Amino acid sequence: MADFRFKKFVIRQDNCAMKVNTDGVLLAAWMELRPTDRYMLEIGTGSGVMAIMAAQRMVEMGHPVPGLPVTEIDAVEIDNFAAMDAEYNFKNVEWLGERVKLNLVNLPFEVYAQECGRKYDLIFSNPPYFSNSLKNPDQRKSLARHNDTLAQSVIIRNVLNLLAPGGRLAMILPVGEAADFKRKTDFLYGAAKKGERVLVQTREALVKTNSNKAAKRVLLEFGYFDKSSPVSGVVEKSVVPVMEECKYSDVYRELTKAFYINF
């Protein structure tokens, strides 16, 4: 598989079961980043493309801000071969220097979550999401695509322990899986006691392959807030059509123009 070239970096993905794709690029371009973000965590980094995009965005917003520490992005990957590509790609982002640190963690997410002593300002993931479907005979592709080893409940449980107060969780999921994820977080919200921190949805964008078609994916963002927070119930909603009238939409171009060579 050929390397994937972006404006400021090249992604080697020879050893990755899942290659660079629209879902991951959209999430990394869409999720909210803040100059004050100290620690970020990516669950299932694959080739490392989303972590590198997040690092580029931090640098382009002028980070590190004088007086603030350098941001560190911890990228967890269970697959040894994909981790090789991610490590190579992290080491070859020459323009990054010491402004943002990329740390590869070659462990299962649950193991890392139990060992990690950090609290994160942002956790993001383009997770495996197929359930009860025909699996690919390629074991590594099946691992990357199916949620047998990284179920939604596993993500939620560990994210609640890893987020710093006021932190965020950003994900991209198919429409059905997004609805399931929101039902789970809504249930936990309802069961939480007053003053307890929970995941509260703050943003959502429906992703359409074409403006005149139904959405296929949903970009989701949650905040880790006190249940009584005034942001509860307020969700910023939008639509991201990839194509419009046989060309890339203005919305998609605007989101990804800092990355794709042709935009």
Task: Explain what the structure shows.
This protein is an alpha/beta fold and 263 residues long. It has eight helices and eleven strands. Strands 5-4-3-6-7-9-8-10-11 form a nine-stranded mixed β-sheet. Strands 1-2 form a two-stranded antiparallel sheet. A hairpin with a 2-residue loop joins strand 10 and strand 11. Helix 1 (22-30) packs parallel to helix 2. The longest helix has 17 residues, at 175-191. The radius of gyration is 18 Å and the shape is globular. Mean pLDDT is 91; it is low at 142-147. InterPro entries: DNA_methylase_N6_adenine_CS, SAM-dependent_MTases_sf, Small_mtfrase_dom, tRNA_Adenine-N(6)_MTase.
Q: Provide the β-strand percentage band.
A: 25-35%
- N→C terminal distance: 23 Å
Structural class: alpha/beta
Q: What is the β-strand count?
A: 11
Strand order in the largest sheet: 5-4-3-6-7-9-8-10-11
What is the number of helical segments per DSSP (H or I, 4+ residues)?
Answer: 8
Pick out the low-confidence regions: 142-147
Order of helices and strands: EEHEHEHEHEHHEHEEEEH
Helix content: 25-40%
Query: How would you characterize the largest beta sheet?
Result: 9 strands, mixed
Name some characteristics of this structure.
263 residues, alpha/beta, single chain, transferase, two-stranded antiparallel sheet, nine-stranded mixed β-sheet
